[in-house]
Structure formats: C-alpha cells, structure tokens
Amino acid sequence: MSVSSLSAVLLGLALLGRSPAPQPVQVPANVDARLFTGDVRTLLRLSPTFRVQCQRIAADPRVLVHLSVVTTIDGGGRAQTTFHRYPTGAIVADVDVLFGGDYRELLAHEFEHVIEQLDGVDLRREMAGGRAWQVGAGAFETRRALLAGLQVVRETGRPSTAHVRAVQETR
Question: pTM score, two decimals?
C-alpha cells in the first residue's frame, strides 16, 4: 500500500471515530434574549438543566419571555420576573436581571419561575408547605427556582459569591 493510500485510510478511520460537529445552539423562538443571547447560548451548550428549561419554554406556544438587563431591581433583588396574563391564555414574562449579576444563575432561576407559571404552581400552597415565601407586595420566591439556578451554576463551572450565599440560604 502506498503512503498516500495509507494516509487516506487513516484519515477516513479518524473521521469515522469523530463525533459529529456540534450543532449551533439556538435560543428558543419565544425567548427574546436581547443582550443575553450569548449567555443563553453558552448555558444551552454547557448545562443540561438549562437545556431542559428552554425545551419546556419553547414547547409552550402560550408563553413569550423578554430578557432585559437593568440597573436596579425593586426591593433590592438581583432579578425579577413580571408576568402578564391575557384572556387568550397567553403569558408574557418580563425578566429583568441586575447588571453585573451572575447571569448563569439568574437566568436559570428566572426561567424556572416561568416554568412554575406554565405548570400552574400555586404559590400560596407552596408557601404553606415551606417551599416558597413572599418577598414583597405580590412577589414570591421559591425553593424550586433557587435550586434550578444553583444546579446550572454547578453544571457550568466556578460558583460565584452570590451562588455560595444562595446555597447557604437554602440550608
């Protein structure tokens, strides 16, 4: 066998053993990521939990999620989602994330709040069970969203100081 034939065979074998090139990661069509497009794509690539969240949101035609970066959050939080419900059953979720926050954690956390709404979670029942608490007038926090954000941080790398504080708060 000639050197060029042997090289061609070896190249073919090497190509057969390679996994296919990664597919481009797409932000769900019903998520208006704006400045967070790169962050959402990175999370989709690195976090199985975030991929499942996005699949759940993408699968529900009733929901539209708008992501925005803001310089202040009412009540001093790091992020908040405001829901607008329409008689047709449509839900618009306006997600505001504090500039400079841990976007990995906060996006996953707020996406979980969106999914809670899609799942019809009764926040008052969750409060009675100790799985949610009121943080302001009409605003709730849930253990489920906290844990989702922490899981995505674990899946994507180095925890932030906010992540460490959140872990301590859930204990």
Answer: 0.80
The one-letter amino acid code at 88 reads T
**Beta-carbon-side half-sphere exposure of residue 131 (alpha carbons within 13 Å):** 12
Secondary-structure percent of the chain, ordered helix, strand, coil, rounded to 5: 50, 20, 30
Residue 11 covered by a domain: no
- pLDDT tens-digit map of 69-93: 999 998 888 999 999 999 999 999 9
d(CA 109, CA 103): 9
Number of domains in the chain: 1
Rounded Cα distance, 98 and 128, in Å: 29
Distance of alpha carbon 63 from alpha carbon 56, whole angstroms: 10
The answer to whether position 91 is within a domain reads yes
